[in-house]
Design goal:
Strand content: 35-45%
Order of helices and strands: HEEEEEEEEEEEEEEEEEEEEEEEEEH
Bound molecules: 3,6-anhydro-alpha-L-galactopyranose
Oligomer: single chain
Helix content: under 10%
Shape: globular
Number of helices: 2
Length: 353
């Protein structure tokens, strides 16, 4: 009996495991946060429930962007440039009402004076904590991007932002020359030498786990596409100091962070970049992730799942539904749901043919 390379690889990598982590996704239009001329709404947080009301937080910015190199340092460079963080509410997860700005940019000269964006929300100890990305003016190709935290007693805010970032890039690469080009480097440094993005905060194992996406100086393209990876930084106190894990990066793929707690561990949905894009993974310790399923490539973009207060009874419950964004035209929010029909049909099958 001989084994092909494919069979050996599948056995070594545990490809023939059960389908309990496998799903497909559907996306649906919602009311209230749909496409609107002249406004970007994007990168929704997880959805939380307070009383009988759902809350979601997202980046909101106005007007078209022109990219880098226009010669005008005040010109909007990205859809997430000159953003504020806004909050919307819903009673059923389908009809949303935009409420108010939850957090706006800092005063001139602060680390967050240019844009605050890509928020996540954590309900903890009777308070509401936003973690989010920040950029300081001027927004250049080589700008370092940071992560900050804000707190409020009320889910509608006002949120008070930290006076300093809680996480910064490792900045351990070296630029080559003075041209504002992030690909010209002498050395690349760590996976997060240039940017820390997409923060996602959990109270986990009596500590605070801040997951994030890293970008290095001199980004490369590998066999799976862009070299985006995630790290985690851990703190005893919610305001920090956050210490980056010695195991970082904890993924070798993925784009916007999307994780949920399950069975004492951490589950993750990885999309867009890297060989392991379009997989769902699980780490019993929140650090050492293994692939649990490979899903179709049309999953939700930048998803923020609903965070139930109840413990999950099955692996995908923490990803059952939520909001994600669509970027055709002006960025806007949609609802995603998981679909386990393929595995359900199989499980309920009585006749095999
Ligand atoms: C997103 C996220 C971060 C990036 C930009 C806005 O998809 O990864 O938030 O900075 O794109």
């Amino acid at each position: 009996m001989k084994k092909s390379a494919a069979t050996i690889r599948a056995e070594e990598r545990n490809y023939f495991q059960s389908a309990e982590w496998f799903c497909t996704f559907t996306t649906h239009n919602i009311r209230g946060l749909e496409q609107e001329e002249g406004i970007h709404r994007r990168d929704p947080s997880s959805v939380i429930l307070v009383g009988d009301t759902y809350y979601v937080y997202y980046s909101k910015s106005y007007g078209a962007h022109v990219g880098f190199g226009s010669g005008d340092l005040s010109a909007k460079v990205f859809p997430w440039d000159y953003s504020e963080i806004w909050v919307a509410t819903s009673k059923d997860g389908w009809d949303w009402q935009e409420q108010n700005v939850a957090l706006t940019r800092g005063e001139a000269g602060r680390f967050d004076d240019r844009s605050v964006f890509t928020p996540e929300i954590l309900k903890y100890d009777g308070k509401y904590f936003l973690v989010y990305q920040t950029v300081q003016h001027p927004y250049l190709n080589r700008s370092f991007e940071n992560i900050a935290i804000a707190v409020s007693d009320n889910p509608l805010g006002p949120f008070v932002g930290s006076s300093e970032p809680i996480l910064t890039p490792s900045k351990d690469g070296q630029w080559d020359g003075d041209e504002d080009n992030r690909l010209n480097i002498i050395s690349k440094g760590s996976f997060d030498s240039h940017k820390v993005h997409d923060p996602l905060l959990f109270h986990y194992n009596d500590k605070f786990y801040l997951y994030y996406k890293g970008k290095s100086m001199g980004e490369e393209i590998y066999m799976g596409g862009r070299d985006t990876m995630w790290g985690v930084a851990i703190a005893d106190n919610i305001f920090g100091p956050y210490v980056k894990s010695e195991y970082n990066p904890v993924t070798n793929s993925g784009h916007e962070t999307c994780l949920w707690q399950y069975d004492g561990g951490m589950a993750a949905f990885l999309s867009t970049d890297g060989v392991e894009k379009n997989t769902i993974q699980f780490a019993p310790d929140g650090i050492n992730f293994e692939i649990k399923s490979v899903i179709p490539p049309n999953g939700p973009i930048a998803p923020g799942p609903f965070r139930s207060d109840e413990p999950s009874s099955y692996p995908l419950e923490g990803m059952k539904w939520g909001l994600s964004h669509k970027l055709n035209g002006w960025g806007h929010l949609v609802r995603f749901e998981i679909n386990t029909r393929q595995t359900d049909i199989y499980r309920n099958r009585t006749k095999f043919h």
